[in-house]
Amino acid sequence: MMRQQELVMQLRALVLPLLHGVDYTSADIAVQLFDDVIGCNISVASKLEGCLMSTGAGGGTMVELVDDKSLVRKSMTSSTTGDRTEGQVKPNSVGQKRRRNDKRSRSLVTHVPHYDGHQWRKYGQKNINGRQHPRNYYRCAYRERNCLATKTVEQQEQNAGTSSAMAVEENAKYTVVYYGDHTCKNHSTSMVQAPQLVNMDLHNGEMDQTTTNAQEPEADLDLPALLEVFDSSLINWQDWNEDVIYNLSP
DNA sequence: ATTATTTGACCTCT
DNA sequence: AGAGGTCAAATAAT
């Protein structure tokens, strides 16, 4: 199953960019089809996993829904000097700094996270301890529209086998973690489930234009986000084991 | 001129 | 104190 998902993702990454430049309508349909396929796959995988869950670790895995213990932040009072009053600060829940995981996060590993439909704006970059590549922080471009979705993208380390720089670039994989759901755009296209994915790429910073066609449903699960091959080696979800592993089966 | 990205400072949590 | 996450001024791109 995992292999299948991986292959579908690869095909998706290959096809969508090509279609995107040619026929937006087809690209849009392709996105939905891919996501539908993926969604079916995930659904089955989730059920299977639910049955097998007891086995613990679950080395394999695919999606992770990480739930955080707390939504964090205390209300920080922005009293006195300087605060950013942009617009209006919401005194209460907006803490702003340090949000860690919102409700749940979904991680995904993919190379070339592009074309999925959401538009993101980069708001930060950080080097993470011991990691080779920096982590990039993005938030939904429509944040004003009440959309609090954010994501982080980080290139996975490449092992020795790397040959040329080019090769590395092409094989580069990125770990993308999504936080929050998109509440912007309510325009859902029919399809049952809507996938939403997003992507951006980081390296080079060159191409990042995100596509504009995004349509997103408000479905809250990001399928895409779910699937993937997850190399847990790079990610330490220390918390996730205890919290939610959100599978459907009770 | 406007909008997006870069990047160091700032903030919070562990 | 250090690490991770966010802000915002400066800068770059459009």
Automatic annotation (TrEMBL):
The keyword Repressor does not apply. It is found in: Nucleus. One of its GO terms (cellular component) is nucleus. Pfam families: WRKY. Keywords: DNA-binding, Nucleus, Signal, Transcription, Transcription regulation. GO terms for biological process: regulation of DNA-templated transcription. Residues 116-159 form the WRKY domain. Residues 1-27 form the signal peptide. The keyword Signal applies. InterPro entries: WRKY_dom, WRKY_dom_sf, WRKY_plant. Transmembrane segments: none annotated. Gene3D superfamilies: WRKY domain. Residues 75-109 are annotated as: Disordered. GO terms for molecular function: DNA-binding transcription factor activity; transcription cis-regulatory region binding. This is WRKY domain-containing protein.
